[in-house]
Design brief:
With about 250 residues, the protein is an alpha/beta fold. It is about 50% helix and about 15% strand. It is built from 13 helices and eight strands. It has helices spanning about 25-40, 50-55, 60-65, 75-85, 95-110, 120-135, 150-160, 175-185, 200-205, 210-215, 220-225, 230-235, 235-245, and strands spanning about 10-15, 20, 45, 70-75, 115, 140-145, 165-170, 190-195. A six-stranded parallel sheet has the order 4-3-8-7-5-6, with helices on both faces. Helix 2 packs across helix 13 (about 235-245) and helix 7 packs across helix 8 (about 175-185). The longest helix has 15 residues, at about 95-110. The chain is globular and about 50 Å long.
Length: about 250
């Protein structure tokens, strides 16, 4: 993958050295539709606070952020960090919303979609729920994410047979981004994007935070209340904020 030049994407800002594109949800979708028209593989990354913190000590992950053809702000922490720069007014462009919006576009325009990841049965259930929500949505296949990294080439060959326009990968950061980067030449999806726990939400396995929590940007707290094992990831948020506050604007 080649690193894209500044003329090929919207305004980018750097949060702790990690590039993030200043785009709205509608702009992100428009850019991804452009990627589909181009016909070549593209890596889209949804950047949250924990991923940016991990990138500080993971050179491979930091390099993947650099090579992303589009990097969106997928957490209230990242939105806050961008908006404090006052270079653009950023809104959250999350993986869970992208999945829903792309499925709606698929029902209208026929884009083919493949779901890869989560526990056995979850991707299939998410696909079924989204087909019901968006009649005509062209989800061509789904597969669980319980496979070791040394099986990536085999899984990639399996997925490539479906020739998806959009590949949603829910393996968690940074596993999902590494899978995409190492297999995109085989799968040849026009848009491949890591979407974390999105399938859990769309399948109904995990409840989305109530609107009040979303408005107050407390979805992280809701996820922690539902699943206390998320504490290790949540603990990265205050660390992220302190690092951003200590960074020169």
């Amino acid at each position: 993958m080649a690193i894209i030049e500044s003329s090929d994407h919207p305004q980018r800002v750097r949060i702790l050295g990690v590039p993030v594109d200043c785009v709205s949800m509608d702009e992100a979708l428009s850019i991804m539709e452009g990627f589909v028209k181009e016909g070549s593989p593209h890596l889209v990354i949804t950047a949250d606070s924990s991923g940016i913190v991990q990138a500080q000590t993971d050179p491979e992950l930091a390099d993947l952020y650099e090579k992303g053809h589009l990097v969106t702000a997928d957490s209230s922490g990242v939105v806050w960090a961008i908006n404090r720069r006052r270079k653009c007014l950023q809104e959250r462009v999350s993986g869970v919303e992208i999945v829903d919006r792309v499925c709606a576009l698929s029902a209208d325009r026929g884009y083919s979609i493949y779901f890869l990841g989560a526990a056995p049965g979850v991707a299939e259930q998410a696909a079924e729920q989204l087909r019901l929500k968006h009649p005509g949505c062209n989800i061509v296949g789904a597969r669980h994410g319980f496979f070791p990294s040394d099986s990536d080439p085999v899984v990639a060959e399996e997925v490539s047979k479906f020739k998806p326009d959009f590949l949603f990968v829910a393996l968690g950061i940074p596993r999902q981004e590494r899978f995409i980067a190492s297999t995109m030449d085989v799968i040849q999806a026009k848009v491949a994007i890591g979407v974390g726990g999105s399938f859990d939400v769309h399948s109904g396995k995990t409840k989305r935070a109530p609107k009040l929590f979303q408005r107050l940007r407390l979805e992280w707290l809701w996820r922690l209340l539902l699943n206390p094992t998320k504490i290790a990831k949540v603990k990265l948020l205050p660390r992220f904020m302190l690092m951003v506050l200590g960074e020169k604007r």
